[in-house]
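note to self: dont lose this again. the chain is below, predicted strucutre after it. 399 aa total, dont forget to put it in the shared folder this time
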Amino acid sequence: MTTVSSPSTAARSVTVFDIHLKLAATPCPLQRFDRKINPRWQLLSKLESLSIQREVLAPQAKEILKIQKLTKSFDGGKTKAVDAISFTVMEGEIFGFLGPNGAGKSTTINMLTTILNPSSGDATICGYDVMREEAAVRRSIGVVPQECTSDEDLTGIENVLLCADFYGIPRKISMPRARDLLVLVELSEAAKRKVSTYSGGMKRRLELATGLINRPKLLFLDEPTLGLDVQTRAAVWDYIRRLKEEFRMTLFMTTHYLDEADNLCDRIAIIDHGKILKIGSPRELKESIGGDIIEVEVQEGDPDLTQSLAAIEHVVDVKKTNLDYRIKTEFGEQTAPAVMDALRLGGTKVTRISISKPSLDQVYLEYTGRSIREEHADSLQSTSRPRGGMFGGRGMRGR
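---
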């Protein structure tokens, strides 16, 4: 795996190395190399000590992805799919990217993977500019698209080697690497079988192996467990955790499964209408909406009692969607009886009521106005999405 140093580290190393060379080439009148009296050794010791101190004091986590006011416009600037977003992703982090359909997720990631050119703003991956250093960016990243992009007429290992060929990796390197990856995703016994004989879960694991063949510093995952059964989902979760814990790989993932985001992601960004609405850890996001949530379902045709409910003590906010009330309160158990009384006095019949602590689904609803379950259902019913999901199918693999 290629190690990319930060600019500050690289500059410091070159400076110390240059001084070593200059001192080595400079005649010294002293024949003894006693560290106590030789000025060369004294200077080198101070420089090396300073270098070590800087390394110790410097934060270990580095910015592997940095975005500043990144924007993408269409229709001559009339439509902003991504509107001046800024955030960073740290090395070794699993970063979740959530948002409704059409929020700007696909456009953002297509810019980061060099498929689309930004209209303005800056983005760097491993220190490489996504616009001016596309080749270096592509060598630094891996992509696992939502749809299966493997050639079903080839075997599993042939698909992995084909991806390695796209990156220009020699066979003497790619062959043992491909075998190791197939062991990692538990496909070594099926390596010489045609992909057409693979199950859906096996194909998904093969996609993960091909996305890792170039040993990326940053791996993009688009819906990594979409459509998989519970057992296979758990296995993919384990692979993702291993990539982070054992290889300190950074992962940037989209998902419609909020339990997946909650369990895997260190931080999550919520995007809508091209803007970042909120970024934080799952715990921080849940704490940001505050209090308990009372959800009430009423009969069709009943009057709207939003204002009456909002006037109840300890109620922070009330939102009504179709037949459902979503009531945010400081104390769920204390507020629920008062809510029932207000609805009964208002002539409304309650068909369902529940009290819960904040969840990621409620966070998503809070910031986007829609449940992610609704978005997921719409996504599954839609047939307009191109093969390969947001990454545009096989195109990225050969770039």
